[in-house]
Amino acid sequence: MQLPSLTSLRAFEAAARLGGFSAASRELNVTHAAVAQQVRGLEAALGVTLLARAGRGMALSPEGERLATALTAGFESISAAIEEVKAGEDGRPLRVTLTPAFASQWLVPRLGRFWARHPEVPLSLHPDRQVVDLARARMDLAIRLGDGHWTGLETEMLVPAAYTVVGAPKLLGDHTALSPAEMAEMPWIFEEGSYEERSWLRRIGLDPETLKATTMPTEELALSAARAGYGLYVELLALLGDDLASERLRAVHAATDPRFGFWMVRRPGPARPALRQFMRWLTAEAKT
User: Fold this and answer.
1) 206 pLDDT above the threshold of 60
2) Which of 37, 202, 265, 284 is deepest in the core (most CB within 10 A)?
3) Residue 212: in which H helix or E strand, if any?
4) Among the CATH numbers 1.20.140.10, 3.30.1310.10, 3.40.190.80, 1.10.10.10, which is that of 6-87?
5) For the stretch 184-222, what's the b/e string if a residue is b when 16 or more beta carbons lie within 10 angstroms of its beta carbon?
C-alpha cells in the first residue's frame, strides 16, 4: 500500500492536534489555504472525511480521531529518535522513569553493583508516580507496576507482585502469621490513595473501611509509621527487602499474583547497547 504524502499527514496531524487550520498554519509556517488543501487532498486520497466544521472550530470524525492519534504518536517517536541520533551514544545518560518507592527501596540500594560492572553507563532516574509518555518525555526505559499491557510498547516482567502485610516486632509480639480475623482487630497504616492495596485487602476478606486505620500522605511516611509500630501495613514484597532483612518489619500475610508486577517497558525498535546492559542487569538482580 502506498502511503499518502508526509506533507499531507503532517498538515492533518497539526490541524487535528491544534484544533484548526489557522493554528496549524502558524506552527508549520505555511498559509491557512495550504494546510486546508493538504488535508482535503488527504481526505480525497483516503476516501473518508477526517475534519469537519463544528461551529467556529473543527471536529474530528471517528476515522480522523484514530488517524490523528496514530500520527501524533508516530511523529513524537520520530522526533525523539532524531534527538537521540543528534545527541549520539557517548555520554548520554540512560533516562529511566519509575515510581519513587521502587527507586528508593529496590533500585538505588542495588545500583552500586551495576556501576561496579558498568562504570561507563550514566543513569538519569526520574521518579514519578504518574505514567509518562516515553516518547514525549524522551525516556529510554520505564519500570511500571501493572499487568504488562501498554499499547504500542515492549514489555518484560521484572518482579512479580506479592502484596504483603507487615508490622513492626513491637506491634506483633510473638506473632509470625495473622489470619484476616486477627488482622481486623489490629491498627493499620494506609497511604493516601492506596487503591490497589485496599482492593487486595478486600480479596483476602478484610474491609478497609472498617479497619482502625491512620492515613499518611506519602509512602515514605506510611512506612516510617509502620516501622515505629503504629499499625499493620500493606506493601509489595519487592520493596520490603531491607526492612525484612533488618527485621524492622515482619511479614505476617502474603499472596502473589503472577500476572501483576513491575515490568520493564520501552519503545519498540532496536535498543542502544547501554540500555541492553542495564536491562540484563535488572533481570539478573531480580533473580537474586
Assistant:
1) yes
2) 265
3) strand 212-216
4) 1.10.10.10
5) bebebbbbeebeebbebbeeeebebeebebeebeebeeb
What's the mean pLDDT when you consider all of the chain? 88
Sequence spans of domains, the chain: 6-87, 88-288
Tally Cβ neighbours within 10 Å of residue 37.
15
Using the 8-state DSSP alphabet, how is residue 206 labeled?
-
Query: pTM to 2 decimals?
Result: 0.57
- Helices and strands: H and E segment counts in the chain: 12, 10
pLDDT tier for residue 271 given thresholds of 50, 70 and 90? confident
State the CATH architecture for 88-288. 3-Layer(aba) Sandwich (3.40)
Q: Are 191 and 215 in contact (CB under 8 A)?
A: yes
Per-residue pLDDT for 25 more than 70?
yes
